Structures are given as C-alpha cells and as structure tokens.
Amino acid sequence: MLKKRIPFLNLSEDEENRLKHKIFDIIFETNTRIGKLFNIILLFLILASVGLVMLESIPSINARYHKTLVALEWMLTAIFTLEYLLRIYCTKKHWKYIFSFYGIIDLLAILPFFIGLIYPGSKFLSSIRILRLLRVFRIFGLTQFTRGRNVLVIALLQSREKIIAFLSFVLLIVVVIGSIMYMVERNHPESGFTSIPISIYWAIVTLTTVGYGDVAPVTTLGQFLASVVMIIGYGIIAVPTGIVTMEMNKAAKDDIPKNTEVCPHCADDYHLDGSKYCKTCGYKLNPHDKK
Amino acid sequence: MLKKRIPFLNLSEDEENRLKHKIFDIIFETNTRIGKLFNIILLFLILASVGLVMLESIPSINARYHKTLVALEWMLTAIFTLEYLLRIYCTKKHWKYIFSFYGIIDLLAILPFFIGLIYPGSKFLSSIRILRLLRVFRIFGLTQFTRGRNVLVIALLQSREKIIAFLSFVLLIVVVIGSIMYMVERNHPESGFTSIPISIYWAIVTLTTVGYGDVAPVTTLGQFLASVVMIIGYGIIAVPTGIVTMEMNKAAKDDIPKNTEVCPHCADDYHLDGSKYCKTCGYKLNPHDKK
Amino acid sequence: MLKKRIPFLNLSEDEENRLKHKIFDIIFETNTRIGKLFNIILLFLILASVGLVMLESIPSINARYHKTLVALEWMLTAIFTLEYLLRIYCTKKHWKYIFSFYGIIDLLAILPFFIGLIYPGSKFLSSIRILRLLRVFRIFGLTQFTRGRNVLVIALLQSREKIIAFLSFVLLIVVVIGSIMYMVERNHPESGFTSIPISIYWAIVTLTTVGYGDVAPVTTLGQFLASVVMIIGYGIIAVPTGIVTMEMNKAAKDDIPKNTEVCPHCADDYHLDGSKYCKTCGYKLNPHDKK
Amino acid sequence: MLKKRIPFLNLSEDEENRLKHKIFDIIFETNTRIGKLFNIILLFLILASVGLVMLESIPSINARYHKTLVALEWMLTAIFTLEYLLRIYCTKKHWKYIFSFYGIIDLLAILPFFIGLIYPGSKFLSSIRILRLLRVFRIFGLTQFTRGRNVLVIALLQSREKIIAFLSFVLLIVVVIGSIMYMVERNHPESGFTSIPISIYWAIVTLTTVGYGDVAPVTTLGQFLASVVMIIGYGIIAVPTGIVTMEMNKAAKDDIPKNTEVCPHCADDYHLDGSKYCKTCGYKLNPHDKK
To answer: Where is each Ion transport domain found (chains A, B, C, D) (predicted)?
Structure first.
C-alpha cells in the first residue's frame, strides 16, 4: 500500500491517514451526513456548470454575458479539479481510482476546459460533466433507480453478442444498399446522393426510420428501391427489440439489489447488501457507518 | 363529515341530504337511467366545446363566425362551471373530490376559459376538456375498455422505475451527443446546429427516430457521428419495448375486472365487482342501484 | 332456399341447378382443375387492372395512351362485373354472398369505375381491386401463408380491446399536446402551427415518430415541449408492441390449420381440415372434390 | 468426381491433388496458420477495395486521384479474380462451390468491375465486395458472433411465413391507401402526390414511420387521412416485432454452437462441433487440423 505525504504541511503518517479517511468519508461515503451534503452540493455544481456551457453556446446570451460566464466556468472547473485531486489523494490505491469508470469520467469532466484554452471549440465538450450525475444518482442510493438500471445493463450485456452480430449485419447491408442507390440516383444531384458515403448515410437514416429527408430519391427506380429498403427495415427493426425483450425476461429474474458503498481501498463500488468486506480487495467497508 | 347549507333556499338537513343524494345520483351514478342520460349529454357537450375551440383556432373560420363561437363557448363554460360546483356540493367530502384525479380535470376544463379573459392565448387550452371523456368512458362501464386500460396502466406503473432509469440515461447521453455534434457542426450554420440546446433537440429528434430534418448534419464527420447515433438509437429503442412487454406479460395475469361505481362519500371509484361498501371509506355503495 | 330462373334461356330447374353447380365449381372451387385455372386468370386480370389505374394516374403516360388505357379498363371492368353477377347467380343464398366479406370486396372492385363515370376522380379508387387478391391467395391454399396470417389475425383480434384502449388514450393526449403546442407556436407562422387541427396533426406525426418536418417548432419552448413529447412517444411506442407480442405468444399456441373450401350453399369459407359439411349451414362441402 | 488438369504445367494426378490440397488449406482452411494469415490479408484487401470505390464516388477526390484509384482498383480486382479461379480450381466439386452462397458472392465481388468496363456506372456496385466479409467473420471462428447470428437467422427463418403474410398484407393496404391519398391530394401538386405510384411510395414512407417529408399532404382531409394511416402504422409496426420476439424465444433454446470447418470436397460449411466428416458428403474434415 503506497503512502504519499503532502509536501508543504508535514503530518505524522497516521495523522495523514486520519485526514485521508476524513476526506474519503466526505467525498465517497454515502452514509455519513456530511457525505450526503457534499454530494448534494456537487449535484448542483455539476448542473450549474453544464448549464453554463449551454448558455455560452447560445450566441445572443454569450455576446451579452461572455465575461461572467467565463469567470464562473473558471471557478467551477477549479473546484472540480481540486475535488479530482482530493479523490486521487484519499483513495489508497490511486491508480485503481484513476482508471476506474468514475475516475475517468471525473477526468473527462475537467479536461475539455483545459484543452479549450488551446483549442477554443473543445470547451463545449465540458457538458460531458453531466455524466458525473451517474455517480450522484448512485450515491443517493436511488436503489429502485439503480435496480431498474441493473436490469437494463444486464439485459444489454447479455444481448451484447447478438446485438453486435445484428449491427455488423446492418453495416454490411447499408454499404450495399448505399452503393446501389448511388448508382441509381447519381445523375440527379437534386436528390442529394452525391457520393457513396452520403448514400450510406441515407441508407442508415432510412433503415433506422429516422428519415430526415435531406437526402431522398427522386427517380422512380430509386423510390421503388427505397420502398423495398423501408419494408426490409420495417422487418428487421423488430430484431433488436426481440433480442432485448428476450434477455430482459431473463435478467428480470436474477436481479439482485445492490448497495452503494465504495471501498475506501480500491474504490470499487457495487457490493451485495450487507457485505462487510470489499468483494475485490477484501478491505473493510465503511467502518464509520453508524447503521 | 362537514355539512354545508345552500344559503338562499333554506331546507331542513335531511331535505338537503335528499337533494344532495338526488344530484349525486344524476351526476356521478352510472346505474340509474337518469345518470346515464346526463352523462350522454355531457359527452356531447364536451365534444362540442372541444370542437368549438378547434374551430376558433382556424383563422378563416374564426374570422367569419367569431361572435357565434364566443357566444357558444360562454354558454358551454357556464354549464361546465355549474356542473363543477354541483359536483363539489353533492359529494360529502368536498375536498376529497376537488383534489381527486377527476376533480382536478374538471377544474382544468373550465379554468383556461377564465384565464383566457385576461391572457387571450390561454383559452385554447380549453381543449384540455377532452380529458373529461376519460370519466365518461369509465362511466359507460366499457369494462373491456377499462380492463384493457388496466393492463396498460399496471404494466406502465410496474415498469415505472425501469423506464425512469432508461429515460434519465437517455437524457444524459443526448446532452453529451448534442454537445459533440455542436462542436462538429457549429461552423456550418446551414446545418442548423446553432447552439447546444438546439443540438440536444436534434439528438432527441434523432434518437427517437422522429427525424424532422429541420436540423441535420452537413459535414462528413457530422454525418458519420449522426449515423453512429442512429445505430445506437436503433439498438436502444428496443429497451422500452422490452421493458413494457415484460411487465405486460405479468400484468396480463393479475388483471381483475373492476366495476365503475363511485363512492358517494369519498368519490373513490374502481371497486371490485359486487362490492357493497367503498373500499376506501366503508360507505355503502350505490344504495339506489336497482339491479 | 330461394330459386331464380334466368329469364331468356328457359331450363328445367335441375338443368339450371346443374348449370349453377358447374359455374360454382369454376368460380369458387379450389380443388377442381378448371377452378384453379380460372383463379390464375383472375389473378392476372386483377393485377393488370390495378396496373392500368396506376398508369392512368401518371400524367405523362396518361397523356400518350389515354384512349388505350380507358378501352382496356372498360373491358376489364366488364369482365369483373360479369363475374360478380355470376358469383351472385351461382351461390344458393345470394344475399349471404353479397354481404359476405369477399362479396363486398367484389362489389367495391367494380363500383368506383361506374361512379367514375359521373365523378371522374373516384375511378382511381379502382385500385382497391387489389384486395381481391386476398381471395386468390386463400384459394391457392397457400396454407403456410394463411396460417401465418391466422396467427396475426388472432393476435390482433385478441389484443383488440387493449389496442382500442391505447389508441383512444393516444387520441386524447394528441388533442391536449396539439393545443398546447398551438398556444406556444401560433405567433410564429413559419413553424406551420397555424391551427389546433394542424397542431394535432403534428402531434400525431411526432408521437408516431414519422416526423415529416413540414410542421416543426421554432421557439425554444416549443422545441423543449416537442422533445418531451418525443421522449414520451419513445416510451409509449413500446405499448402496442408489448400488447401484440403478448397476444402473439398465446395465438401461436392455438393456431389450427384451416382449409380453404367454400360452402356452395352459404359461401362461408374457413372450415377445419377434413370437414365434410359446412360449419355454418351444414351443407355438404365440395362434393366434386376428387381427393 | 471430375478431375481437371491445368494445361500448361503438366503434373501427375496426385502431384496435382497435393497441389490442390495445399491451395485449399491456404484459401479455405481456418485452422492452419497459413490459412489464417491468408484470410487476414484478404480481410484488408476487401476493406481497401471497398474504400477505393467509395473514394472514387466522391467527386472532389476522384477529380484529383482518378488515375491512382483506377490503377489500384485494377490491381485488387486482378487479385480477387485470381483468388476466385483458385477457389474453383481447388474445390473438388467445382459447380457445388460456384453455386454455393459464398461462391456467388465471390463472383458478384468481381463482376461489377468487368461490367463497369462497358457500363461505367455499374462499377460502383463493386462495394458489394463488403459481403465477402461474411466469410472472413465466420472463418475467424468468432463463434459468439456466429452463434449470435445463428439465433437471428433461425428466428428470421422461423418467422418467415408470418413475416411474408404480414408484408403482403402491408403491400395490399399501401396500394389502397396510396390510391385514396392520390384522389384527395391530386389537385394540390405542391403536396407531391403526382401519381398513384408516388402516393404508394408516400404510404410506405409513412407506415414505416420513416417520413422524409418530400411528399406530405396539404389538404385538411389529406392530413386527417394521413393521421389515421400513422395511427394504424403505429398499431401494426408492433406486429413484426411481436413475431420476431416470439420466434427469438424459441430459437434461443435450440441454439447449438457450430464450428466453421469447410468441407474440402463439397465446400459445405457449418458442421456440428467435433464432427469428423462432412455432414453433406461424408468427406473427412480438415485432416491437417493439429488440435
């Protein structure tokens, strides 16, 4: 277990451990009062910062309040960055956290801003911060929410291979359909079939029944083929549904309630209810839990 | 049980109770001949008033018959208002009715008109009256209808948490997708991606496979990303279906026929067939029923 | 059992009965060689006549070959009319046939033409003749086809009440959604929300995820509401699927193969395999069947 | 079993047989190291050639690099042609291979190019080569992929008859709907309903919920009918899903893992795991397999 001292303030090891524990409880723990408070504040800060980015993207508003928006964004990013560093600091296995699902999201949440300093455009990616809500949701032990999600996740994972098979099949046929349509429509530029890639784009837009209409066949043959494509799409749109429904039924059965404790040692979450030790590293779970 | 006398006509308490009973039977009761008649008339009045609102909204027609339409609307609203007051009057627990599902709808059905006197636009909301048909449907004991509905309602309630989980997930990703697409397309105003909110709107329009085409990517990268989004949408559109289908199967099993009596005491409806007393307040059900 | 003689050629009753039998075998019977031949010819005549109507509807072609097309149409309609009369003549219970499902279709197939002589437009309805193929399909004992269809029909009938409940629910909400959107967008004519009926049309176009884009919100609020509507639609589009899937499972079980004999007496079709007598009128089935 | 000698190099029969075996192992075999290598190269060549065709279809790029692209295409097609001939040569039953599923695809992959020499347009069909990936996928024994696919294929085959029944039903109604809409909208050319075929195209675009909006009703009646069509479509879009889901459930049960050996004798693939002899011609399977 690697230890790292904060340079400037020099503490004895166990003073530091106590500090780490305190921080951990505040940031990660769901059962302590202060932990809950922290996460509620976090929730609002995240929403605020996403709102900021959106406002900035609206020309009229940005024109007016540019300075204010930027200032606020600086502030919020600063907070998130500090939080991120503390998260690293207080988890025992730093790297484990950094490369954990939430660790990566936490990083992605602040990165775009800094990249934005060099490539202005990318700052709009900051709204990726919204994904951090996933943790907050989980933390408030919206068990029914998480349980509902579990069923979905399990079902999707279960049907993974079938869906991949299905999608790769779809990809093959859209290429074929796209090429054929391009051949048919290429002499009518008004139809919008200006290249095979565009035609493939059209094929996807059509098969998925989105149908923007920015590209649409104009020749009789083209429209006939399009009709065939749609009828096919009509038939195969049923497939993913069938898959998921099937798996959903299975998943629904073995849907076990999870709790939302986080291992202070390896930052692993999702342990079975009432588990005393981390299922991954065997470290004792929330010793401060007063339940 | 609070009693209230009508001021102007002074009746003995049980005269008034008899009166209330009479009114109740006419307005709420489904089994008496006069009750049925009343509700049939009500049905047509509701349809008429909704038709009125629609006609008013058609410029050409409104220009011609404005006066007539307004007059008729005044009349119908007057009737509905009176009816509403009588409903309050004749139910024993006034507030119970007022805050019951149908009580609120009855209020919403007349409110827009009066608000419309101040803010003209809002009067078009009057067509919300159509929702009053729900009661009429129920009242005509279209049991098969109501039973059909029960299965749906149960299924939807059962899958509530899963659907919420699913929707909140969708909301998170549309924000992310929207921001990314905005970054890609923002330098091509003709694409319509003029701000992140608009891009999120596009993401929803696309994921749900509605695809208006008022906003559509024009850059190759944008169209490629859009294709990915559609393929994803193709995959996840299966999820809600899977959920509902699953629950529907369960719901179908425990689908018990309900009858449509209304408790004269607490205005609670949906009692099991042949129940003699209100399942909520134990009050005797339709004593006037001649079956 | 009413008898009718053909006026001009005077035959003894049983001569006539023999004649009727002969005609019946040709027109209705599926097992005699000549019956099959007749129906194959009929199949092509139907397709031809539908093709005709389509060609007539294409301005360029109609301009060129108007005379020919009209001539051919006269001819084909004459044939169909004659056939219709013969069908009436040779079935014992004339009215039973006339008001049977196929009897009505046979009439609808020729009616538009004659109406078209007065109101030119209506002649295009002649393409309704395509529905006559239903009989032909059945007649060629495409059992797998018919069986496949049976499952569908049964499933749809079974889920009838639920689907009605669902659709009437949809109808109520589109009215409400339409009115609200009209209120929001009415001051932006470019959005296309020019009246409540149009707004309801938009609501249906959106909820069903068709999304033409001919009417689309332009205000931020309007687009936000539209997004909500789509998300809702996303959720409830699952409902009919759930219903049908559920019923389909049941239907699949009790899916009994049917044969395609037609009762010469009451023109009732769909008898259980190997039935010797008409399930409706007890009349002996296809006595000419050489199996 | 027909033998054919290569004219120019004269080998004894069993020298030739040995040669054939060698080639067969390289081209068809999945278990030998060299076979794997060959197929990996093939994979990239296929992707490259499809990429080429796409690039050629993009005007700007084609203008610049036309010569290079054509040259590369010549080269790749030459390779594929040679490969095709070798495949014929080394399979014992030549015709069996030529008319096998993959044999036909292999031919279709090179044909467009040669046709393109006469009719330039058709060369874009070359991207049909992408279908050759199907074999490559299979060859790399992506069992989970293939198994996933099996379930789909089985389900679709199982539901074949029901889907045909459904589609033919859909075809009938789109003709009827199309004609009716044409009658209603034909006097408003701006709506785009310029002929019955176009109207049918519209009906399909609408029923499948694609909804381009290139053709859309403008009259009130037309929009009303369109709404009805959409509601219907809403109801029946559930049907194929129901069908597939149902079959999927069955298929999931009897989903047996397949292996991907190819019979050197009749080029039949898909044998049960661990089968020693070709299930079709009893020929010994992959004698070179070192497992």
So the answer is: 36-253
Put simply, whether D176 touches C (Cβ < 8 Å) is yes
- Rounded Cα distance between D77 and D46, Å, is 10
Classify C5-140 by CATH class: mainly alpha
> Which pLDDT does position A166 carry in this prediction?
79
Contact A248 B231 (CB under 8 A): no
pLDDT band per the 50, 70, 90 thresholds, residue B257: very low
**CA neighbor of C164 nearest in space, from C243, C46, C274, C278:** C243
**SS3 state of residue B277:** strand
Distance from CA of B155 to the nearest CA of C (A): 9
User: Given B209, B213, B245, which is nearest D213 (Cβ)?
Assistant: B213
Query: A241, B238: Cβ pair inside 8 Å?
Result: yes
User: Does A130 sit within 8 Å of B168, measured CB to CB?
Assistant: no
Q: Among partner residues C209, C213, C245, which is closest to A213 by beta-carbon distance?
A: C213
Q: Hey, where are the domains in chain B?
A: 5-140, 158-254
Q: How far apart, in Å, do the first and last CA atoms of chain B sit?
A: 29
Q: Check CB contact of D167 with chain A, cutoff 8 Å.
A: yes
Cβ within 8 Å, pair A204-B230: yes
B259 strand-pairing partners: B271
Half-sphere exposure of D246 (CA within 13 A, CB side): 28
| Token digits of residue B132 | 């009053």
In tens, the pLDDT along D153-182 reads 777 777 777 777 778 888 888 999 999 999
Is A246 part of the contact surface with chain D (CB cutoff 8 Å)? yes
Average pLDDT over residues B47-76: 91
Instruction: Check if D74 contacts B (Cβ < 8 Å).
Output: no
- Contact by Cβ (8 Å): B284, B92: no
Distance from CA of B291 to the nearest CA of D (A): 38
Maximum average pLDDT range among A159-173, B156-170, C114-128: C114-128
Mean pLDDT across chain B: 79
Residues A222-247 have a mean pLDDT of 82
Give yes or no for C240 touching A (CB within 8 A).
Answer: no
Q: Which pTM does this prediction carry? A: 0.81
Task: Classify the complex by whether its ipTM is higher than 0.85, answering yes or no.
Answer: no
Residues 6+ apart with CB under 8 A from A198: A182, A192, A215, B223
CATH code of the domain occupying B158-254: 1.10.287.70
pLDDT at A253: 52
B208, B237, B246: best mutation site toward chain C, by most C Cβ within 10 Å?
B208
pLDDT for D10 beyond 80: no
Shortest distance between the Cα of B228 and any Cα of chain D, in A, equals 17
What is the least distance, in Å, from the CA of A272 to any CA of chain D?
Answer: 30
* Mean pLDDT confidence for C137-152: 59
User: Using CA atoms, how far apart are residues B92 and B78, in angstroms rounded to an integer?
Assistant: 23
- Rounded to the nearest 5°, which phi and psi values hold at B210? -75, -55
Chains touching C (3+ CB pairs < 8 Å): A, B, D
Beta strands in chain B (DSSP E): 258-259, 271-272
How far away is chain A from the Cα of C68, in angstroms, using its nearest Cα? 23
Per-residue model confidence as pLDDT tens digits over A78-119: 999 999 999 998 888 888 889 988 899 999 999 998 998 888
The Cβ of residue A106 has, within 10 Å, a number of other Cβ atoms equal to 23
Residue owning tokens 């929730």:
A43
- A211 and C CB contact within 8 Å: yes
Quick one: which of D252, D240, D154 has its CA closest to B238? D240
Q: Which string of DSSP letters, residue by residue, matches A198-253?
A: HHHHHHHHHHTT---SSS---SHHHHHHHHHHHHHHHHHTHHHHHHHHHHHHHHHH
Least confident of B27-31, B269-273, C217-221, D23-27: B269-273
d(C-alpha C239, C-alpha B163), whole Å: 12
